[in-house]
Write a structure and sequence with these properties.
alpha/beta, TIM Barrel, 4-stranded antiparallel sheet, disordered N terminus, 31% helix, 9-stranded parallel sheet, signal
């Protein structure tokens, strides 16, 4: 028992030390296709989401990926696509009492200091469970735009009008809503099903663009879309991040010497998704491969895959898609008395190119299966962090704050400052980071444990006690992509 306690203490110390990362995406997917919100009604759904967001905030989550377009429909007010059945039970039926879930989520996430990334499924037009489509749905309005495959409808990626259509939908979201990101998952061409064939021979024959191999042509179609989509979003708002969450295997080694030592469905060969091309060409702002397997999985070992992605996909921030339930289901190969969370987090810290984690799925963390949520809030995600560096979007930052001073008020001892706002989006201050250092401590802004808060206010209430202990407070300003200004400091007795 004594040895077990020592091991637990060492593991906790290691995790606490590793927690010093200042920039890390800590996300969670909130999906609707599992039916968790269907027919809940406005009040109950808002209560459910409020509870989830509160718990995720305690866990240290700083980004929510909220599913708003599962099958060419909308969990937001749209003049282009019908209301989703995953909201009201009937596609095309507006919620009653009326509300806009996307706008509500943006407001609630921003109140909690979280980013909101609107998650869309680009080409999927009908899921298997959907039996009735609204008259305003694109598959009804333009049936030739889709093909059927394994009870799904898929917008044909080989048609330019479909690529234009998806970009139009995304631009509509970005132009009308204050989203921080637009997020796509792994649905491009459909996952292969035995006995099913993609019916695009005629389109390939008539519009091959000189490409002889049909598989290369399909990849070409998706590549065109990704490049067009990325430009379309940044043309509207340059600060809105484009994120993609591909399937966890790019290629198996048996298909390519550059592939991973795995045996499973492949992005490149089976889904016609050339993820590495997109990363290396800068057609996305962050990549979240879905590494949902456990360490030691025979077909797709987690440790093998995180190493492979860290070596091959670092041209843009690499964030790991993490299966919460599977992580706590399997034992650590090095310690049968605990599950795999600690081992996976150690792997994350082993590879500097890994810039965060997104949890599949939010409710599993909220339900605290295997004490996953508790471990996040007490150990791994205890300290506040900024988002990963994305200075490739813009390397500009706000000017430092002015007139930093502590002031006694009726509400207590308050630290005030004045922003120095620029004229362009990337020099404008939208948030502020407050650091605190004890007397004798070196001021090190790379130490996330010294961040006391990140706020959009121009003040911070100081924890005054007896006025005998001296601290140094440092304030910096952030722009929309969290580029940080130069610091301003003030010594204060508390």
């Amino acid at each position: 028992m004594k040895n077990k306690l020592i091991l637990m203490a060492v593991a906790l110390m290691m995790a606490t030390t590793m927690n010093a990362q200042k920039r890390e995406m800590r996300g969670a997917w909130i999906q609707c296709v599992n039916g968790q919100f269907q027919n809940l009604g406005t009040k109950k759904m808002q209560e459910t989401l409020t509870y989830q967001l509160n718990e995720l905030q305690k866990d240290g989550v700083n980004v929510i990926m909220f599913q708003v377009r599962p099958e060419c429909d909308a969990l937001y007010e749209s003049k282009i696509e019908p209301w989703s059945r995953f909201l009201t039970g009937v596609q095309g039926k507006a919620p009653s009492p009326y509300w806009d879930p996307l706008q509500w989520m943006i407001d609630e996430c921003h109140k909690r200091g979280m980013e909101l990334h609107a998650w869309i499924n680009p080409f999927r037009a009908k899921t298997k469970g959907t039996t009735v489509l609204s008259n305003s749905h694109i598959a009804i309005r333009k049936p030739s735009s889709c093909f059927a495959y394994d009870e799904l409808f898929i917008l044909n990626p080989g048609m330019q009008e479909n690529r234009d259509y998806i970009c139009q939908v995304a631009q509509d979201i970005v132009s009308r809503y204050d989203v921080d990101g637009i997020h796509m998952d792994d649905y491009f061409y459909p996952y292969p099903v035995k006995g099913q064939t993609i019916p695009d021979d005629e389109l390939f024959h008539d519009h091959s663009n000189g490409i002889k191999d049909q598989n290369d042509w399909r990849r070409y179609n998706v590549n065109l879309f990704i490049e067009q989509f990325y430009k379309a979003i940044h043309d509207v708002k340059p600060w809105v991040k484009v994120g993609i969450s591909p399937f966890g295997i790019y290629r198996n080694k048996k298909s390519s010497p550059a592939g991973s030592d795995t045996n499973g469905t492949q992005n490149y060969d089976d889904l016609y998704a050339d993820i590495l091309l997109w990363v290396n060409n800068g057609w996305l702002d962050y990549c979240v491969p879905q590494l949902y397997w456990e360490i030691g999985n025979k077909a797709a070992d987690y440790a093998t895959l995180i190493k492979w992605w860290s070596q091959h996909a670092s041209a843009r921030p690499l964030v790991i898609g993490e299966d919460v339930e599977r992580t706590v289901k399997y034992a650590d190969p090095q310690n049968a008395n605990r599950h795999q969370l600690a081992a996976k987090m150690n792997l994350h810290r082993t590879y500097p190119t890994v810039k965060g984690t997104v949890l599949w799925y939010a409710k599993a963390a909220v339900d605290n299966v295997g004490n996953y949520g508790t471990s996040l809030r007490e150990v791994y995600w205890k300290n506040k962090t900024l988002q990963p560096d994305m200075s490739f979007i813009s390397n500009k930052a706000p000017k430092k704050v002015k007139k930093l001073a502590p002031v006694w008020t009726e509400d207590g001892y308050i630290l005030f400052w004045t922003p120095s706002n620029g004229k362009h989006w990337d020099t404008q201050s939208v948030k502020y980071v407050i650091y605190r250092f004890a007397k004798g401590e070196k001021v090190n802004l790379d130490d996330a444990s010294k961040i006391v808060t990140i706020t959009d206010q121009f003040f911070y209430k100081l924890p005054y006690e007896r006025g005998t202990e001296k601290f140094t407070y440092v304030v910096t300003a952030l722009n929309r992509i969290q580029n940080e200004s130069k610091p301003v400091s003030k010594k204060i007795k508390l």
